[in-house]
């Protein structure tokens, strides 16, 4: 993404009352202008959130003070398991070491952080250990989400995807948790709906999660960004323009006003819930 496009996204966001912007990838800190982007977004009055694998470049920028508590509102570190071998198998050599080193640096520098868990089947039995670790380290939130088929997730095999009954038990466990640490909670996508149970959130219909890609394509729903023909908007300069009225995401959104049956997720499995439809654990304080 060019700095010009990024500046346009910020200008549009400021005009429309957006309070937080998230930089994600891939690994956003590998962008040569990453630190400049963080600084520019902060100067526009945005809370700046970053989702990172804990890349060494992010660690260097944090250690040097280029990014830190003065311009980052929070950082989400991808850590699926404390098992180093399994983490590296899932995310590449050194992934476990880098994620843990980044968490240590964030704590040291006083940057609020979350832990993101992609809950493939091999890590389900490891979640209690990750949650306990997160609480001890001063984490704000553990975000457990359904495995995505995008990016490295495109290589996932069928046996790595949780079964519906496994996921429903996990959701119940999260909902039943009572957290003792002030401000700490665990959040999880509901995953599956009971018969007749409605969604409680949908980014496509409530415009709550606009995503802009490096080529300017813009999507309301992150589940659709790997489908070029679903893009019905684009960000040009500092304007969000409709590029394909009556097709793509706009056509889908119109259909979903009457029923969620048109949603690709719901159509694939009529019981699946949206990735933005979440529940969280209970805080005792």
Question: What attributes characterize this protein structure?
Answer:
285 residues; TIM Barrel; alpha/beta; 7-stranded mixed sheet
Write the topology of this structure.
Layout: H1 3-15, E1 20-23, H2 34-43, E2 47-52, H3 56-64, E3 74-78, H4 84-91, H5 95-109, E4 113-118, H6 127-137, E5 141-145, H7 164-176, E6 178-179, E7 185-189, H8 203-206, E8 211-212, E9 217-219, E10 233-236, E11 239-242, H9 248-256, H10 264-268, E12 278-280, E13 282-283
Parallel strand pairs: 1-2, 2-3, 3-4, 4-5, 5-7, 6-13
Antiparallel strand pairs: 7-12, 8-9, 9-10, 10-11
What helical percentage do the residues reach? 25-40%
State the helix count: 10
H-E order: HEHEHEHHEHEHEEHEEEEHHEE
Strand order of the largest sheet: 1-2-3-4-5-7-12
How many DSSP E strands? 13
Which overall shape is indicated by the principal axes computed on the Cα atoms?
globular
Number of domains: 2
Instruction: Write down the CATH topology of the largest domain.
Output: TIM Barrel
Q: Which architecture of the largest domain does the CATH hierarchy give at level 2?
A: Alpha-Beta Barrel
Instruction: Indicate the CATH class of the largest domain.
Output: Alpha Beta
The rounded distance between the terminal residues' Cα atoms is 42 Å
Assign the CATH superfamily of the largest domain.
Aldolase class I
């Amino acid at each position: 993404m060019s700095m010009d496009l990024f500046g346009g996204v910020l200008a549009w966001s400021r005009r429309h009352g957006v309070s937080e912007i998230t930089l994600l990838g891939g690994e956003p800190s590998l962008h040569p202008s990453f630190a400049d982007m963080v600084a520019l977004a902060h100067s526009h009055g945005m809370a700046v959130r970053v989702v990172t694998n804990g890349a060494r470049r992010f660690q260097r920028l944090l250690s040097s003070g280029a990014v830190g508590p003065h311009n980052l509102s929070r950082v989400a570190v991808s850590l699926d398991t404390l098992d180093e071998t399994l983490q590296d198998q899932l995310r590449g050599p050194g992934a476990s070491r880098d994620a843990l080193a980044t968490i240590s640096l964030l704590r040291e520098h006083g940057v609020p952080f979350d832990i993101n868990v992609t809950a493939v089947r091999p890590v389900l039995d490891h979640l209690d250990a990750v949650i306990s670790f997160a609480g001890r380290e001063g984490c704000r939130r553990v975000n457990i989400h359904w495995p995505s088929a995008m990016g490295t997730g495109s290589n996932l095999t069928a046996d790595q995807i949780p079964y519906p009954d496994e996921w429903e038990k996990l959701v119940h466990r999260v909902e039943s948790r009572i957290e003792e640490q002030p401000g700490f909670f665990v959040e999880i996508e509901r995953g599956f709906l009971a018969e007749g149970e409605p969604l409680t959130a949908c980014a496509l219909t409530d415009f709550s999660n606009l995503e802009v890609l490096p080529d300017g394509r813009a999507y309301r729903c992150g589940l659709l960004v790997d489908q070029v023909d679903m893009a019905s908007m684009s960000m040009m300069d500092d304007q969000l323009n409709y590029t394909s009225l009556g097709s793509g995401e706009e056509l889908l959104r119109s259909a979903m006003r009457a029923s969620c049956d048109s949603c690709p997720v719901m159509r694939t499995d009529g019981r699946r819930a949206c990735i933005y439809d979440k529940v969280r654990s209970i805080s005792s304080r």
